[in-house]
Recover the amino acids of this structure.
């Protein structure tokens, strides 16, 4: 086999997780797949798979090489497509996405559903979590992240601002009063959100780099939507992101307090791994999410 054929065999084995299944898919013998993998391992000087009598498992080096090999094969295949074939090929396949849970459920799913109706050859795989995704390991194509983007391996664009509001139900404010300063929160019932990445409570952020961490919260959760429901129910004051708080503030079901101490809004980024070429289906999804988050009519980011 030439090197391109070896890479195709390797990618099939990596996707199947089984040499026999890869052989069946490619119309080869299992021995042919094994020989191809051994030849690549000899060329790279690294093991691509851990093998024993019971199972085959790809190595960390193999995972990275599989990602690079898939990109290379896509580029090679694209060279031989006609214009019409190339356009159809780039709109066929799966786009894997990740986003924070509440933001994804409330805003992204509707836009992605509309996109899928317009482009039925695209499959969407959306994973929602408050944890930061391992982009390479989870083979993420497009992601949404709140806060800083330090990794230079991404193409990232700030799509929206996310203000933070300290809010409570009107009934709770009437019963216990409004805090006039940050220190007043220490004597009031409050909610706490657990950072799923660290297992510790998120501090509340205020202007001038001031912070407040509830010592004895009335309600603790690792889910922002659950915290919002608890605040709406009058359990305590909470600091909520704008996309959850603004609709309820405008409806009068939540009251913002400490407005003069609100921190600078955080940025919401849409990102994708830095790789080339970028299939058109990924560009479509990337731009659709940018447009959604940048539209104040579709994504609440400003309190009038």
């Amino acid at each position: 086999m030439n090197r391109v054929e070896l890479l195709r065999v390797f990618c099939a084995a990596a996707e199947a997780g089984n040499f026999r299944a890869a052989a069946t898919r490619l119309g080869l013998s299992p021995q042919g797949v094994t020989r191809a993998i051994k030849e690549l391992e000899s060329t790279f000087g690294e093991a691509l798979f851990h093998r024993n009598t019971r199972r085959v498992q790809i190595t960390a080096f193999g995972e990275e090489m599989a990602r690079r090999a898939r990109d290379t094969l896509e580029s090679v295949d694209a060279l031989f497509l006609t214009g019409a074939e190339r356009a159809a090929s780039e709109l066929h396949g799966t786009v894997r996405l990740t986003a924070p849970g509440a933001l994804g459920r409330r805003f992204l799913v509707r836009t992605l559903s509309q996109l899928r109706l317009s482009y039925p050859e695209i499959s969407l795989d959306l994973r929602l979590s408050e944890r930061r995704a391992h982009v390479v390991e989870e083979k993420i194509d497009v992601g949404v992240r709140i806060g800083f983007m330090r990794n230079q391996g991404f193409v990232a664009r700030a799509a929206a601002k996310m203000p933070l509001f300290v809010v409570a139900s009107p009934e709770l404010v009437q019963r216990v009063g409004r805090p006039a300063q940050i220190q007043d929160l220490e004597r009031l019932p409050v909610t706490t959100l657990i950072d799923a990445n660290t297992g510790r409570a998120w501090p509340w952020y205020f202007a001038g780099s001031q912070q407040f961490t509830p010592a004895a919260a009335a309600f603790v959760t690792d889910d922002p939507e659950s915290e919002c429901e608890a605040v709406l129910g009058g359990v305590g004051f909470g600091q909520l992101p704008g996309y959850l708080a603004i609709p309820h503030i405008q409806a009068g079901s939540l009251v913002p307090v400490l407005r003069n101490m609100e921190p600078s809004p955080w940025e919401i980024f849409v990102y994708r791994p830095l790789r080339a070429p970028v299939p058109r289906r990924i560009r479509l999804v990337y731009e659709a999410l940018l447009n959604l988050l940048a539209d104040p009519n579709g994504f609440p980011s400003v309190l009038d």
